[in-house]
Amino acid sequence: MAWVREAPAWKFHVFLSFRGEDTRNNFTDHLYTAFRARGLAVFKDDEELEKGEEIASSLLEAIEESLCSVVVLSPRYASSRWCLDELLKILQSRAEFGRFVFPIFYDVDPADVRYQRECFADAFKKHEERYASDKVQTWRQALRDVAGFSGWPSKDKRETELIEEIVAEVWNRLQPKLPSYDDDLVGIDSRGTESIQAVVLSLPEPYEAQWHPDAFSKMSNLSLLMILNKLHLPLGLNCLPSGLKVLAWEEYPLESLPIESQLDNRKSNNLWRGTKFMGNLKSINLRNSKNLHITPDFSRIPNLEELILEGCINLVEVHGSLGLLQKLSYVTFKCCKNLKILPRKFGMDSLKCLILSGCPAVRELPEFGENMKNLSMLALEGTSIAELPVSVGNLNGLNDLLLEGCKKIVCLPNTISNLKSLSRLNISGCSNFSKLPDNLNENEALEYLNASETSIREVPSSIVLLKNLRLLSFRGCKGLSSNSRSSFFPFQNIFRFNSPPTPNRLILPSFSGLSSLDKLDLSYCNLPDGSIPDDLGCLSSLITLDLSGNNFVHLPTGCISKLLKLEKLLLKCCPNLESFPNLPPNVHHVNASDCGSMKPLSDPRQIRGHLASFAFDKLQDANQLKTLLVIPGNEIPSSFFYQKYLDQVQDIEYLKKNYIWADSTVSISLDLAQLRHQYSKSEWWGILVCLVVEDVESSPSEEYRIGWISKVPSFKNILHQLLHKLETGFVSGIPSHKYPHLLILYIPSTYWFYVQDKFQLIFYSSSLKSKLVIKKCGWRTLRKEDAENWRRKLSECATAFAKQCVPRPSGGTLPPHLSPWIWISDLKVPQHCKTFLLAILCDRLPAHATCKFCSLEGTVIHVLRDCTRATSIWVQMVPPEVRDEFFSTSLRDWMHRFLQKPWLPDRDYDADCLRFTVTAWLLWKDTTSSIFKGTDTDGLYSMIQSLVKEYTTLLHAKGEEGSSGGSSLSQSSRLKQFIKLNVDCCCTANPGYGGLFRDVEGKWLGGFYGTRGFTTNMEAKLYAICQGLITAWDLGYRTVLLETDSSEAINLIEKANIEECAYGSLVADIRCLKQRDWSLDLIHSLRKDNACAGILAKLGAEQHQLYCFLDHPPKQLQPALVADSLQVQLPCP
């Protein structure tokens, strides 16, 4: 019997030995991924040894610490001395420790390996010329030995089948070597389970775990369990530790939670008899668990504080015991589309937030208990409730009542007046809602009232008593339509019945009491002359006023000019408006496009008069291109440097490289060094650009846009490159009628703060049907003296312009529908996807001679939909009810139908738009760039699903920032807020850097990461500090505590001689930042306290991006943030 000495403790299940040149990026990579998906820890050496190097000791240790070795014998395997040395060590480990060895004969014959024929003979012939004969003989014998083991030849087998067979056999052979219960959790030793406090699993792909049902039974001290990827548990799950505090399990795979003492029938849908007491469990997060049908009996989880069941689309019933939990503070069932049954009564006295948004099957709400005074948010968007219970009046602490899209609700109960703390009421999209309560004034704390797109015909006069109201919107409230009566009385016109006139516009009260109102939206309400109250000018706090889409000819005299705080005025698409109002002195943006009855500006002095009303002194910190004025006009003011329209081939080619298709371009080049020399910083405020755009075709076009893109020359200082990467965007407010329009844009001097010499702006036009051109262009500098001179002439210029009007042209009516480029710009999809959609409608995507996947003609519609490859993707996401229509319409009809309305009435419109757009974009990219190799579409479909999920998160974050009720901080709040900034670098040959901002409670505010390329770790650490301070300043934070675990970096910043220091330039930049007007402390922290910043730095090294700012924490960071908040240490990765 052979003697086997004691094996070292194992760290890996599998060691992969392979020849990188043959299989690194194909077979071996796929095999590695398959092992990882099965839950096996795999060692794969990704470093190529240079000539003359010896095999690393760490590699030899990894072989000894692996339970088995998989040897991929490929044609060039024997040509590598390092592969042969690996093989010797593998066989030695087999002999000494009893390790398994599995050979794979990849594109080679096992007999050729054993007898060293063909390519193996050639390899050994070279070895014999270079190495000692005894060494070569040991290599030869090793190959003979491994060729005699049972293995797998790759010939005549599909790769996927071969890999599945290999993984299954390795798994089965390793099972006896692995401990029994919780050891199925890879890397957790059964003897140490009582010491485990946190378990976090995050894998890049779905994973089937062969865990024993009692895998967690011995982890008595487990307080945090986070599963962040899709996990399949074929053996089920019997129990969870009673001491668990936080359970976060995305896409939970089972139908119910194992919070029970025994399971009589594991296949049952209801496993809640004999519940186990779990007094420590405070948080349950089972987001997107599609198999969950029913919740547990919550009576034995008395201390539960947070319940997150968002996206559990098959959840039907919530156990009635939920309503009895006295410590529960946060509950969300968002997007549980089949949820029907709720507890009859809610009595959760500590509940602060209840979310039922996106639950269309919910038709009735529970009664609310008398002591539910802590509930501050009730979100019911998209439900099918017809009324609120009278007991809603018990919610004395309610701040937010959100009913957007509840199409069946008609009115609010009278008890709504009891809600003295109600500050936000959103009933937008409640199409049958016809009347606001007459006693609405009793909700004296109300600040936000959105009644857009409702059937409200008359606004109650009591609304003027809401002294705290800040936002009021009746957008699209037209009352009953003029032809609605005809639909009920089809013979009315035939028999000429007389009926009382029905108002088809909104009836407004006086506005005199709304002293706090800062935003008023009365757009598209069919308001005629005389319908706007004369006291509109009394709104002394008004900042934004939207009167677009109405039918008035004139506005009340002086009502606009009295709004001294007004910054944004929208008068778009008012076809009868004849005269432009006098403007107040502090506006930032005015849009009067598509006002067909307004005379185009012809006197340049009029433009100068309007510019006098703009608050240029308050626009200095905007740091972006801003549209000031859009108005009918055809002349460049004489004070602008006139530049003729020029169709520049070079600029058009530059745009194409950035996926932008243009009809025409004009570029403006600025010599900033000369401008800075000519004007001091205090005098030079910025640049004004004036464009005249016009459709030059014979027929009006409704489908065009103006965009811009900036070009900055390369810099020696990488900091400048970082802060001035390519920028692009659309100019807002482009008209949709064939009238010449004047656009005046402003770029403050701070926009080019780090640009040293030259800067170029390219403006481009793009149309879908006709040809829109930038007909004229001009620019000029803006000095403080210029603005002051214009202000002195404000009254004269404004008065002269107000008198300019002409009769409305015949036939000048609004188009029956918004132009496609407008609705595309409104889609909640990424910007590059909007550009792609416009390119399709502009016929800017080139057709291919043949499709590379099926050899048919490669038309756009074929590539995007009709190719068998594309069809196999679409059928996985398109509902069966609309598939016939989906696959039969023309290209343009296809896009209009499936982008302008939901695929089915009960589906999420925004989600369908995003899914459609991302899929079409990736299919096109796959055809042109081969982003996913091979004919199997599963990988491409997974990529689509992943991108949709990522973009949904990003767009949701942006939406939250943009909403008035969101959690984003105002500039004034940020100036006062204390924040902690942690920064770090990733110590590799290509070091990344990263950092994150948190408030005084440790809550995430934002983060960033990037890479410096090949540089030193110290430079990366200093750069992380510099970039963190720049980002903090730009975000408006003025009280900052910066922590780094590098005491050496702090010492350089505080004491280094800049002229002698190798990092003098960076240190100088940091010192300059420290001298700004803010409270800034730079201190040293322990390495373990800086773990979150370290994760971001590692992400920066992996992503190879110069700089990326994060509004929300990435998935890789979330476990560390949760662990920080619970003050537990994560398991080692």
From TrEMBL:
Domain RNase H type-1 span(s) in chain numbering: 975-1102
UniProt KW Acetylation keyword: no
Residue ranges crossing the lipid bilayer per the database entry: none
Coiled-coil intervals: none
Keyword Acetylation recorded: no
Domain TIR: 10-174
SUPFAM superfamilies (alphabetical): L domain-like (SSF52058), Ribonuclease H-like (SSF53098), Toll/Interleukin receptor TIR domain (SSF52200)
Gene Ontology molecular function, alphabetical: nucleic acid binding; RNA-DNA hybrid ribonuclease activity
One GO BP annotation of this record: defense response
Keywords per UniProt: Leucine-rich repeat, NAD, Repeat
Name the UniProt record assigns to this protein: TIR domain-containing protein
